[in-house]
Amino acid sequence: MGKDEQSKGVKRGISRRMFLRGTAGSIAGALAASGPGKFMTQGMFAPRLIRQNNTVIFAIQTFAHEAIQSVLPQFEADTGLTVQLEGGPVTGNEMLTSYSPAFASGTSPVDLFSDADDSSPTFMGAGWVKPLNEIIPQETWDDFPPSMQDHIRGFLSIDDVPYRIPHEFAVGYFFSRQDWLSERGLTVPTTWDELVEVGKEVTDSANGVWATTDALIKPALLYVYVAYLAVQAGGKVFEFDDGTAQALQFLYDMIHTHKIFPEESLNQDYTAQNALYMSDKVWFMRQWPFFQGVAEDNAEWYAPEKLVISLPPAGPLGSKSWIGGWGYSIPTYAPNPDGAAALIQYLTSNAVASQLAAQQGFLLTPRYSILEAMADTDDELIAAMGMYAENDVFAPRAFHPRVAEAQTVVDDMASLFLTKQASLSEVLEQGKQLIAALDQ
């Protein structure tokens, strides 16, 4: 696939027709359902007196702060509140480590925070976050298409009562250096086999240049990539089945056999992964949508041809990438719950959510209002979302009632195999036993 053919699916504005095609299980099919098409926020944020303190402490990952800050002046003018932004944890495991001690003691260091799929079930089950059904207006919930509802009911609710509202629709996109490929007369790999074939040709390990990489540090990030490969192999990662075995073996081979994937990635987080790509050391990589904004902010380095999104290389089951996301929650013991309620209403309103999504992929979900506001733009992530929907790439995130602990099992077993401390058969058997213990 040449540069022009690769680019036209992603680098141009996406049409409504592109989103209205597909099955009910895809984002495209979801958008075919009727839904609100206009912003209906007038009057929601009339000036009010918050009778506690005047500061709302809001924790969210630092790369989203600039976008959040752009919409705060109106909120602060209308409410008389001041919003204090703090950096939030970057993984669900870090969320649990950072906040569980305070929540368990009946206190909270923040009024509102961005929480992950893999930590919120624990917070919800423990009663440490507030229900949002009487805080978020129905018009906001109605702005989410049917395709989001199962995810909301599964990872953001208990007994259909929501405790978290999505601000991110996360799917691992496959980013490619189309400029390099064009110079070498190569095409984006479309299968695992092609990724290895092209990878051997382009890797220059002596100079620290790799075909592909990811952040594989524990906790949680190794799980993310193993689960990504597992859905491409048709595996259910918490069952340690044949598809999961194929995924683990493929990752092992990329690192140790074919040597197209740096072993150092086992100690790297997303910041290091992104830095490697933007240091011109990586040809392809899976990464979450937020990287688009990170790369564009690096104005001296960024060019569209350095960051072209294509379909993930297909494994035995096909070209797949699982969906997940982050969302806003209010701690039960928030010092300023009224201020937090006002802020979460504002940030998730149809009009403001659209403004945020246009600036930062970490604040993008396939809401009707967002897609309507951005449908005629040249936004790469909107185009990529449509392309992935059309090609049936989206796969469900693996669910377990004790999801954070189950992910730790995958982390630990994968690490043992990838560092040559245990055989594949040993980690599969032990993984099954550890998951079974969680189910008891």
CATH topology of the largest domain: D-Maltodextrin-Binding Protein, domain 2
Distance between the termini: 50 Å
- The total tally of domains equals 2
Mean residue pLDDT: 87
CATH first level of the largest domain? Alpha Beta
Which structural category fits the helices and strands?
alpha/beta
Written description of the protein model:
- This protein is an alpha/beta fold and 440 residues long.
- It contains 20 helices and 14 strands.
- The chain has a five-stranded mixed sheet with strand order 2-1-3-13-6. A four-stranded mixed sheet has the order 9-10-8-11, sandwiched between helices. A three-stranded mixed sheet has the order 7-12-14, covered by helices on one side.
- Helix 4 (65-79) links the parallel strand 1 (55-60) and strand 2.
- Helix 11 (221-232) packs across helix 19 and helix 19 (403-418) runs antiparallel to helix 20.
- The radius of gyration is 22 Å and the shape is globular.
- The N and C termini lie far apart (50 Å).
- The model is unreliable at 1-51 (pLDDT under 50).
